[in-house]
Specification:
Layout lengths: L8 H30 L2 E7 L17 H8 L2 E3 L2 E2 L5 H10 L33 H7 L3 E7 L18 E5 L10 E2 L2 E2 L2 E2 L2 E2 L6 H15 L5 E6 L6 E3 L2 E5 L10 E2 L3 H24 L6 E7 L23 H4 L3 E4 L8 E3 L3 E2 L3 H8 L15 H6 L8 E5 L2 E5 L3 E5 L5 E5 L15 H15 L3
Parallel strand pairs: 1-10, 1-14, 2-16, 3-17, 4-5, 4-10
Antiparallel strand pairs: 2-15, 5-8, 6-7, 8-9, 11-12, 12-13, 14-15, 18-19, 19-20, 20-21
Helix pairs in contact: 5-6
Length: 446
């Protein structure tokens, strides 16, 4: 027929080859897209010095409905630990999945700007953070809020450890309104000091919402590290600072449960705004939300860990057992309560597993607990270890061995004495020796 050209065999084969290449390319692209889409976003929320009795889901008189709702729509943990009773070592464990004893000695206590020995202490460049892995996997990564893994040089801040974006501060605390550490400006956007008006908790909430909206079409790992309800480092001292809406309370206080409660409730409202944003953007089914505190509360600043014994700075339960709740709509069954003995070290391997990435080639001290979250399975019994200054703890499901700062030894049966009231060391010498041996073997590894 005029106007038509018949394809020869060579042309036909070339056409088939081109179609095959295009089909393979499209199929690969689609598979890659679906892999990214089915891997969850992660919103990791860390509060600062918030005791287990400062969340109403754990019995507090302070109402925290939005934090509570994370557990109501997912899982609430009753035996969840952090690696240390103070900020720096706890955060090291959370972000690296490794006990702080694997780092420089300074990371075994809180880094303080006023301590000259801490001036040039920074997270080792050889450390691999969870953000490093997420970034390598194509996620957008951000840290909003508190760093506290080295101060004085922003070149050793979050941007150097896997975080694409940083909005927050380097030292352990700041003035909630002036955003300074004492007299020193401390608020950064990436590596630039900035000035901005507002209450720090609200600023961190607003920045989080903005980041989520901006990255709604990209996978993201967002570490929201609030400074609340930790006291503010004001020019006139370490003080609790009331949020703007608390007109009936003093602007600053030292030990005031009412002011502390207002700080916590302001934090809770901010978390509610963030969760609502995830719903409005239809991201709830593809976002794992985790909430926990970095260590126990301080009674001198309004916190409470009751009825557990101890507080921040101690290895009694009140110093290291923290509130922890998680939700992932459609993946974690709603309304679960778990009493399994878990630790923040477990989050690193768990999250890496959930995004189908490879673990780094180094020793990690936690375990993958994704089956606990997704299938409500039990994990095998194991030993957890804690060392802070002269205090030592060895813990498994049933027993807790503790040696305090005065070398006094204790053994508690955690099944029937969770509040550590009855020292049963004299009648359980075989168990005590076993725990001592486990502790000695643990310490030899460092």
């Amino acid at each position: 027929m005029i106007g038509k050209k018949n394809c020869g065999r060579r042309e036909f084969l070339q056409l088939c080859f081109i179609i095959g290449i295009m089909t393979s390319f499209i199929s690969s692209a689609v598979c890659s897209f679906h892999k990214i889409q089915k891997r969850p976003n992660v919103l990791l929320i860390l509060s600062d010095d918030q005791g287990i009795n400062d969340v109403s889901a754990y019995g507090s008189e302070i109402l925290t409905p939005h934090i509570d709702a994370i557990g109501e729509n997912g899982i609430r943990f009753t035996n969840f630990y952090v690696t240390a009773p103070v900020c720096t070592p706890s955060r090291f464990g959370l972000l690296t999945g490794r006990y702080q004893y694997r780092a420089a000695e300074a990371f075994q206590d809180a880094l303080l700007p006023k301590n000259p020995d801490h001036t040039n202490i920074y997270l080792g460049k050889d450390e691999i953070t969870i953000a490093d892995i997420f970034k390598k996997e194509g996620y957008r990564t951000a840290l909003i809020g508190k760093w506290h893994l080295g101060h004085g040089n922003v070149e050793f801040g979050p941007n150097s450890y896997g975080f694409d974006y940083f909005y927050g501060f380097l030292p352990g605390c700041i003035d909630y309104y002036k955003h300074s550490y004492g007299m020193n400006p401390a608020l950064y956007r990436n590596k630039t000091l900035i000035e901005q008006e507002g209450y720090s908790t609200n600023l961190f909430t607003n920045e989080t919402i903005h980041f989520i909206e901006k990255n709604k079409n990209s996978p993201f790992f967002l570490f929201l590290s609030y400074n609340a309800p930790h006291y503010g480092r004001c020019p006139d001292g370490n003080l609790l600072q009331s949020p703007p809406e608390a007109k009936n309370l003093p602007e600053k206080a030292v030990n005031d449960r009412a002011v502390y409660a207002a700080i916590v409730q302001n934090l809770d409202k901010g978390i509610g705004r963030i969760i609502r944003t995830l719903g409005e953007l239809q991201l709830e089914e593809n976002t794992l939300v985790i909430f926990l505190s970095d260590n126990g509360g301080t009674y001198n600043y309004g916190g409470s860990n009751g009825p557990y014994r101890g507080q921040k700075g101690t290895l009694w339960e009140g110093g290291i057992r923290v509130p922890c709740l998680m939700k992932w709509k459609g993946h974690i069954k709603e309304g679960l309560v778990s009493d399994q003995v878990l630790i923040s070290l477990d989050l690193f391997p768990t999250l890496i597993s959930l995004i189908e990435a490879s673990l780094p080639n180094r020793t990690l001290d936690g375990i993958n607990i994704s089956d606990v979250l997704i299938q409500n399975r039990c994990i095998p019994d194991r030993y957890l270890f804690f060392k802070f200054k002269n205090q030592i703890v060895v813990r498994n499901k049933q027993w807790k061995y503790l040696k305090d700062n005065n070398d006094q030894e204790y053994l508690f049966n955690m099944i029937n004495d969770v509040y550590e009231q009855n020292n049963v060391i004299s009648e359980n010498q075989i168990q005590v020796q076993l725990m001592r041996t486990e502790c000695e073997n643990f310490i030899k590894n460092f």
